[in-house]
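PABS domain-containing protein: structure tokens wanted.
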Amino acid sequence: MLRAAASRCARGAIRRLSSAASPAAVAAGARRQPPLDEGDWSYHREWWGEDEGPGEGAHTVFRRHSEHGNGVVSVSAYPASRPASDEWTVTERWLQERNARIYPNSFGANQFKILGYQWRVMRFNDHTRQSVAKVMACYRSSCDTGMYLMQQPHCLAVPWLTALPCCSYDLHQAVSGQNNMKILCIGHGGGSLPLVLASKFRGAVVHIVEIDPVVASASIDSMGFPSLPVKGLPPEPTKPANGNELLWGGIHDRLFLHIADAEDFVANDSNVYDLVFIDAYDGDDIFPRKLWDAEGTFLKNLEMKVHPVHGTVVVNLHSDSELSVAGVEKTSSVDSILPLGKHVSQVCRAYKQHFGLAFTAAVPWLCNITLVACRDRAIASGARLGLSRRDFVLGKLLSKSNMVEHALDLPFPCLQYIKNGFTLVD
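Answer:
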């Protein structure tokens, strides 16, 4: 959820973004040499757009009313910067190579051409941003099969993966495909997080739970998410044949999208998950209470479905309240204009109660807080060597951040995000 429901929050976001793009961050990016603009936060003005809706050069590519509390679900397209010319050529080449494997008799016909790139922004009720994705459009020349849309699986508007240093799972094994990691994503949006996870972890199977079929349709129709067969969604007759295999090369086979209520899905699911990501808000920016009620069935069932040794749960909290994160109850002198603001401390304590260690870190340019609850016993109960519990946990996380950053080839450094507003939940 990338809501910018308040102009106060949006103005602060730009100021915090400027500080986030510090010389140290720039130097770190230069050292690792990430792609030109995939996931580079200095391009925020491109994908962020106007505060209250589509800006200049934007047009609506999807619009439909939801029956699941999300109001009007729409997707707007914005112009995007182009990758370097050599990258463009490389992409066309691997598309053609995949095409030749699928159609070995095509020879030189039906050459793949890239039309361009766009930012696609999903909104609820026209003014609240649900998710952002960068989409590539391409086609096969001399072949009337329609246009292909491919979401770029390296762009995350919220750096979720910076929570991974707290996970004791062997990430190198999962990246190489030697281990079979199981991941659950509650809340689909445009599908950017599941795509990044399936792309980075070749040994991962990703289950996605989305209650609203309109949101799922928008991601497939207009945001370049693979057209997976999903019960409850109509087939997409306009999608070119073999598009998934051509664009995704098997990544789509490890993605499973379920149209279901998260509470019901978790109650009936037989999987045990290594990682769980939760980002579930409706059109009124409400995080359903049943997903954070400490005594409710959802958390009790989820507790049993998270790996008992290294299981990690990451929750996106959309809140303008920073005081409540530290466990300080809100007072009348603190104005909260986002619904979750007055409940953040309760949410944090509920997840800590069920999963052990919990901490939060602020996303520096959005009104978002990342809550992480994990079962890493080495971090949760290790010797503190004279350090405070907070400093001990933070030190452990920072010591693993470089490993995670390089193992996953992240387009952003973990270190600065973990340190930003780090708070251990009491």
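The longest strand covers residues 112-124. Residues 389-407 form the longest helix (19 residues).

Cheers.
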